[in-house]
Amino acid sequence: MAQLEIDNLSVEFRTRHGVVRALESVSFSVARGEILGVVGESGSGKSVTAYTVMALNDDAAEITSGRITMGGIDLLAARPEALRELRGREMAMIFQSPRTALNPIRKVGKQIEDVLQEHANLPSRELKRAAIEALARVRIPDPERRAEAYPFELSGGMCQRVMIAMALACAPSVLIADEPTTGLDVTTQAVIMDLIRDMSHTARMSTLLITHDLGLAGEYCDRIAVMHAGHIVEIAATETLLAHPAHPYTRQLLAATPVPETRLDGLMSIPGQLPDLRKALPPCRFSGRCERRQPVCDESELPWTELSPGHVVRCRFPL
After folding, report:
1. How many CB atoms lie within 10 A of CB 138?
2. Strand partners, 311
3. 39 CB contacts (<8 Å, ≥6 apart)?
4. What is the pTM of this model?
5. C-alpha distances out from residue 105 to 102, 109, 130, 149, 203, Å
6. Angle of helix 108-119 versus helix 124-137 axis, rounded to 10
7. For 289, phi and psi rounded to 5 degrees?
8. What is the distance between the alpha carbons of residues 296 and 311, in angstroms, rounded to a whole number?
9. To pair with 119 at 20 to 30 A between CA atoms, which of 14, 127, 221, 246?
10. CA angle, corner 264, sides to 259 and 267, nearest 5?
11. 265-287: burial string, b at 16+ Cβ within 10 Å, e else
C-alpha cells in the first residue's frame, strides 16, 4: 500500500520573465518501507517536487493540477496548521543546504530539542538526552559536546549530519532526502545511507531519495523514477532499470555515470541542454535532445507504456 502518492501534479512559477512550467503531470507513489529514488539532471524538477510535497514552495508557485496524499490525508487540501503538525512528526525532509536550513544563532542540540518538544511528546527532562542520542545515531563524534555547538562552529559535513539527525529524530513515516550526502566523505555517506535504509526497512518508513547520483540510487533504492524537465519519463525496479533502461534519456544518464571499470574518456555526455520551461514545449520535453526523435513525438500527448510489471516508460519509441 502506498504511503505517499502523487497523482498528475503540475506546478508553475510566475516570474518577471514569464511562467515557468516546472512540473507537468508528475505521478508516482512510495510504499511503506520502500526507498524510491528520483534521479535526473539539475533543473529537472526533483527538488520542486519535494518542496511541493512538504508545502514549502514560495508564493510564486501555483499548483495547477494534481493530488498529493500521505497515509490517506490529502495534503493539498489540508489546513496550514495541520500541515505544520504533520511536518516533523509524520513527514520530514533532509535539505540540500544545511547551513541555510539550520538556525545560525541557536545551538544544534537545542534545535533538535525543539523538534522533539513539538512532535515527540517527551517530558522536558528527556529532551536533551534524546537530542544527544539523535546526534549519536548519525555518528557525530562526542555528541554531548557537539550538541552545545552553533552551526557556524561545525563543518559543512557535520551540519549535514545534524540535519539528518533532526529529520530522523521523531521517526517519521515519510522521509524526503534531498541530496542527503552532500558534503560528506565517502565513509560517512555509507554510514548515513545505511541508517536511512535500515530505518526505511525496519520502521516501515517511506523514503523519497532525490539525487543526481545514479550509482547511489542503484545501491540503496528499491525503485527509481527518472525525471527530465519536469516530466517523469521512466519508473522501474532498480535492477530492471539499470539492466534494461528503456527511455533514451535514462540510457544516456547511465552512459554518463562513472563506474570503477570505466575510463574517463569512455564517459558519454548528454547532448544539448534542458529546454526553456517558459516556452511552449512539445509533448516530449526531451525530443530536442533525442536522436530517436520522429515527427509524431511533437504531435500528440505521450502515452505511458508498460514494458513489464512495474516498468513503465513515457516514450513513443522506447529502446
Report:
1. 22
2. 308
3. 46, 211, 212, 213, 214, 217, 224, 225, 226, 227, 253
4. 0.91
5. 9, 12, 21, 10, 33
6. 120
7. -115, 0
8. 23
9. 221
10. 70
11. eeeeebeeebbebeeebebbbbb
4: closest CA among 205, 278, 236?
205
25 sits in the region (left: phi over 0; alpha: psi -120 to 50; else beta) called left
Dist. CA 132–CA 142, nearest whole Å: 9
- Compute the average pLDDT of residues 99-121: 91
List the beta bridge partners of residue 210: 38, 178
Q: Which three cell numbers stand for residue 12?
A: 508553475
Distance CA 56, CA 62 (A): 12
Rounded CA gap, 77 and 75, in Å? 5
* Cell, residue 222: 528499491
Residue recorded with cell 541557536: 106
Dig out the grid coordinates for 9 from the structure. Answer: 501534479
- Which amino acid belongs to residue 88? G
- Answer whether 24's CB lies under 8 Å from 10's CB: yes
As a whole number of angstroms, the distance between CA 37 and CA 95 comes to: 15
Beta bridge partners of 91: 87, 174
pLDDT in tens, 51-102: 999 999 989 999 999 999 998 899 999 998 889 889 888 999 998 888 888 9
